[in-house]
Amino acid sequence: MSVILSASVVRVRDGLPLSASTDYEQNTGMQECRKYFKMLSRKLAQLPDRCTLKTGHYNINFISSLGVSYMMLCSENYPNVLAFSFLDELQKEFITTYNMMKTNTAVRPYCFIEFDNFIQRTKQRYNNPRSLSTKINLSDMQVEINLRPPYQIPMCELGPANGVTSAFSVDYKGAGKISSAHQRLEPATLSGIVAFILSLLCGALNLIRGFHAIESLLQSDGEDFNYIIAFFLGTAACLYQVDLLPAESSLEKCMTLFPVGPCLESC
């Protein structure tokens, strides 16, 4: 029987579940798929915006947009066009109902659990294809899927479903590969850039004052040598802080500049 079994809404950047359907079966196959759901949730930021994972008798499909991913579990013979049309409806309703500020600042899992009411109603409609023929137009979705088919995630790249993930590589439209051994840099914030510039300026100022102190020491004996040491120590500290910013914007480098450092997000 081809049906949608469950669906969930997940934040892309950290895999935080925002909402989910609550009436899924508890058989062994479903429990295994829930593990894959969690594993995929942690990898969403590295994956294309439309994907499918085949897990034996079930398929996991998801789409991502505006920092939120919409995932669903269905039987293996459930039509692709219906699956992604279902996800598209969830996406449109969620974007209409909740603004990005709320989703970005959410800290509790399932803080939008009331969205499950819409998930349930939509799931019932899509599990009864007769009622869909007069309510939705699948031709546009079919054309889109034909032109840009969902990325098929190989099971071997996902690793075992026991919580121990293997290297997870994605090669999509020539975008290159990202594995769990690599890391992704997020852009520095405005405050971080300002702090970086101020560190450079402080280092330069301490250096200039140090040279002036040396000149003063050579001209007279009244200058305390400890001031010179203090200026050059201050310069060294500022330059060390700046030097923590990697010279190359590599995925393996970690920006550890204390006030600035673009946050490093592990795969």
Describe it for me?
Pfam families: Longin, SEC22a_C. It is found in: Endoplasmic reticulum membrane. It is a multi-pass membrane protein. Keywords: Acetylation, Coiled coil, Endoplasmic reticulum, ER-Golgi transport, Membrane, Phosphoprotein, Protein transport, Transmembrane, Transmembrane helix, Transport. Belongs to the synaptobrevin family. The protein has a six-stranded mixed beta sheet with strand order 2-1-5-4-3-6, with helices on both faces. It has a two-stranded antiparallel sheet with strand order 7-8. Helix 2 packs antiparallel against helix 4. The relative contact order is 0.12. It is about 40% helix and about 15% strand. It starts with a strand and ends with a strand. The protein is elongated. The model is unreliable at about 160-185 and about 245-265 (pLDDT under 50). It is α+β, with helices and mostly antiparallel strands. The chain has eight helices and eight strands. The longest helix has 30 residues, at about 190-220.
